[in-house]
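In this supplementary section we document a worked example of the pipeline. Step one takes a protein sequence of length 176 as its only input; no multiple sequence alignment statistics are reported here. Step two produces a three-dimensional model, which step three serialises into structure tokens for compact storage. The input and output of this example are shown verbatim.
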Amino acid sequence: MAYNYVVSARKQSGVACVACCNFTGANDRNMIIVKSTRLEIHKITENSLEPFVDVPLNGEVQVMETLRLDGESQDVIFICTVRMQYCLLGFDAAKNLIVTRASGSVKDRIGKEVDGGGLGIVDPSGRAIGLQLYEGFLKVIPVESGRLCDAVNIRMEEIDVLDMVFLHGMPKPTIA
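The serialised model returned by step three reads:
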């Protein structure tokens, strides 16, 4: 009886999400690239793009956004997987490590998942994270005092949302 063992010979190369932020330090400019189940962090220098770290993720990424929490000089990365699990990643410069600052689930017991993957947005002032993962609902995760609060669902009239954005300069988080 013959047994076959099949594996891929290369890492993923299809880019799912990209963002630029100050992740590794207040004065460092970084390019964050998500390739399915891998997170690549590069440092942007004057003449080049230098690889910094390549980390495997436990799940296929659906949404990746960066935000700056109140009173902090570095950005953090918010990631939501296809299985509706999320994490908030930060960088500890003293230990030179990526640390998980928060994690949890945004999965609902009922609802039809959106076709083609969910949408994620972050308030420019860092007050809330919005996720459109289910048709007719916007899941909002409030951010208070630098930590994520319990998510709430807000009913939306529109079913087929192509894109959305938090508006700048509003006294309360406002979505268009």
